[in-house]
Amino acid sequence: MGGAIFLALVLYLVNQSIFGFFKNRHKFFSVSLMNQLYFYHLIFWLTYYIYALNNPSDSKNYYRNTRAYTGEWLDLYGTSTTFIDFIAYPFTNWMDLPYVVVMVIFAWIGYLGFIFTYIFFRENIPIKIKLFKRFDFLFILMFLPNMHFWTSSLGKGSVIFLGIMMFVYALKAPKKRWLTLLVGSLITYHVRPHVFMFMVVGAGLGFMSGNKKISMAQKVGAFIGMIGLLILIQDKVLAVVNLGGSENVVSDFQDFTSTRSQGLSEDAGSGVDMASYPLPVKLFTFWFRPLFFDAPGILGLIVSAENLLYLIIAFKILKKDFISFIKKSPALVKMSAVVFFMTSLAMTFVMSNLGIIMRQKSMVMYFLFFVIYYYMAEKKYKRMVKLKKLQKRRKEEIMHRAQD
After folding, report:
1. What contacts 334, CB < 8 A, 6 or more positions away?
2. CB 26, CB 169: distance < 8 Å
3. Is 208:214 a contact under the CB 8 Å cutoff?
4. What value does the mean pLDDT take over residues 336-348?
5. Which of 218, 216, 222, 211 is nearest to 330 (CA)?
6. Are 185 and 80 in contact (CB under 8 A)?
7. Which of 188, 221, 286, 293 has the greatest number of C-beta atoms within 10 Å?
8. Is 353 helix (H, G, I), strand (E, B) or coil?
9. Which residues cross the membrane (predicted)?
């Protein structure tokens, strides 16, 4: 444990250099907030570590498997689980680091994802929003417990979270941030190829429909490029659901999802029969359950409180003008909406275990929050503009009366 604490302090010093880099590029960047978030994240590293010692955990399997691996390191290079083995191997095998120290390293990787999340929100939405007329919305989003818990351990959660948030951060200025975009794309693709596919489709549709400066020729070119990329990675995407050699993808996918859903519903004692649910109920289950009435254990109760907050936040967009907002929204908002819905839709067909749902949805919920945050910020901005015009008009009326 002493080595883990020492490494956490060393990484704290490394963070200061990273903060300085971003502070020079983004004047709004709050070093104090990011330091608070780092120590907050470490609480979840410790929580997850204690939890893993007393419960089944993929993190222990990753550690044991890579530590016992006797083959060549490069042979581990691949997608999905093997990519996590590939990243973990130097730490567990070459450096012979204990489990708790490797957990710190991967928790830090997850924390880096929160840095990009923070910049992504603040850079694109400079207007501050109060939730419940009192609490800073962005502050709440940065400190959501479930998001930190599943990104604070050795596993896919921390790595893909960093990849996704690097990807969306770079989309603000892809020409200048091409290296960040490339690294984020590679990370996301190698951890979950199907999620990368959703990101590409979402980004493509978002920018083609949300950027009025793009000509039709550029849109056609981007569409062709997007289709070409999807063709290149189709084998990896289909392999995720064991359909790499399928001759009837639709039929075989239906069989896979039925089998997968049944298997997950029987696992860990927290299954739900989502296969029999209508689609709206499936989506609601993925986004907002467990709630207090079906919470699996103490962790489930904590997550239920957070899910209730998600539900309250989601009610903010149940307004008549939301559809028109989406139609006129900028590219990043459209992209977030598409990625959120497509990923959620895909997950609902294979998720039937509340414990797994709690973990998997941490990848996509920030996309929903970004859409909601932008919607609320735009409404606030319009109110501010309207108020300024009204104040200006009243001031002019007072001046005219004074002159008369």
Report:
1. 202, 205, 206, 209, 210, 326
2. no
3. yes
4. 82
5. 211
6. no
7. 188
8. strand
9. 36-53, 97-121, 142-171, 191-208, 220-241, 297-319, 331-351, 357-376
Dist. CA 336–CA 342, nearest whole Å: 10
DSSP assignments along 125-146, one per residue: --S--EETTTEEHHHHHHT-HH
Return the higher-pLDDT residue of 163 and 215: 163
Q: Which residues of 198-218 are buried (b: 16+ CB within 10 A; e: fewer)?
A: bbbbbbbbbbbbbeeeeeeee
Residues in Cβ contact with 174 at an 8 Å cutoff, skipping those fewer than 6 apart: 181
Count of Cβ atoms closer than 10 Å to residue 128 Cβ? 12
Tokens of 52: 């893993």
* DSSP 3-state of 243: coil
57-90 pLDDT, tens digit each: 889 999 999 998 888 999 999 888 899 999 999 9
Tokens of 152: 């604070």
For tokens 């400190």, name the residue: 143
For residue 271, the SS3 value is strand
What per-residue confidence (pLDDT) applies to 296? 64
Residue found by looking up tokens 């550029």 in the block: 218
**Minimum mean pLDDT range among 15-19, 41-45, 134-138:** 134-138
- Cβ 388 vs Cβ 299: under 8 Å: no
The Cα–Cα gap between 45 and 66 comes to: 20
For residue 131, the cross-strand partners are 135
Cβ atoms of residues 154 and 102 within 8 Å: yes
Structure-derived torsion over alpha carbons of residues 370, 371, 376, 382, reported in degrees to the nearest 10: 110
The structure tokens listed for 323 are: 């559809």
Sign for the CA dihedral angle at 150, 152, 154, 159 comes to positive
142-158 per-position pLDDT tens digit: 999 989 998 999 999 99
Alpha helices in 241-278 (DSSP H): 249-265
Residue from 96, 113, 105 nearest 59 by CA = 105
Contacts of 16 (CB under 8 A, 6+ apart): 31
d(C-alpha 95, C-alpha 249), whole Å: 43
d(CA 193, CA 197): 6
